[in-house]
Amino acid sequence: MLNEITKRILSTLFLIPIAFFFIIKGSFFFNFFIFICFLVTVYEWYQMSKKKNYLIPGIILIFLSFYTVYLLRFDDLKLFSFLLIIFTCIGTDMGGFIFGKIFKGPKLTKISPNKTYSGMIGGYFLSLISLSYFMNWINQETSINWFIVTILISTISQIGDIIISYFKRLSKIKNTGKIIPGHGGLLDRIDGMIFAFPFFYIIELIEFLN
């Protein structure tokens, strides 16, 4: 029987190439992929939050998040940023999970009892490793600006994870679904990205307006 960490790593290694195929291909393939992800995420949120007063605000946030995903992907100049967000959020999620499981230690917050300081540090650590790997992959040097951006995205991703965990506790569930082995539901997997993409898009918008 595979343990939780092994299942999580294997499912991540399996899903990343599939997701990146749709992302890189773009056009119809990406539209189809992102639409299916949107429907699954909304369904999981509905199942978790039905009859709750935060059901509609959550659906609106999910819609706006996926819309910023769409906008960033189909701006050719933003594809670099789009991929960096994904790399950072995946690294943050895996780092938080692995370091938290191995080192444990003091709890980060009562909102999400499984979150620890060691997991938070691990999230930052693997997000920066992901940045280094990504920059090597595209043959670019890691600048201080992208270092700062990665830390910010990792922070927002971890906050998003805690926020979704809070609502899961209100609904008295551990996972939003069972679609991904070792991860639970799709919402469990992309909770950080739901907040990271709009955050980055707002930063880009402010910079453009200035």
Structure description:
The protein has 210 residues and is an all-alpha fold. Helix content is 77%, strand content 0%. It contains 7 helices and no strands.
- Radius of gyration using CA atoms only: 17 Å
Instruction: Point out poorly predicted stretches.
Output: none
Shape: globular
Question: Largest sheet at a glance?
Answer: none
Element pattern in H and E: HHHHHHH
Q: How far is the N terminus from the C terminus? A: 55 Å
Write the layout of secondary structure elements.
Elements: H1 4-25, H2 27-49, H3 55-73, H4 79-103, H5 117-137, H6 144-170, H7 186-209
Helix pairs in contact: 1-2, 2-3, 3-7, 4-5, 4-6, 4-7, 5-6, 6-7
Give structural attributes.
about 210 residues, mainly alpha, 7 helices
Summarize this structure briefly.
This protein is mainly alpha-helical and about 210 residues long.
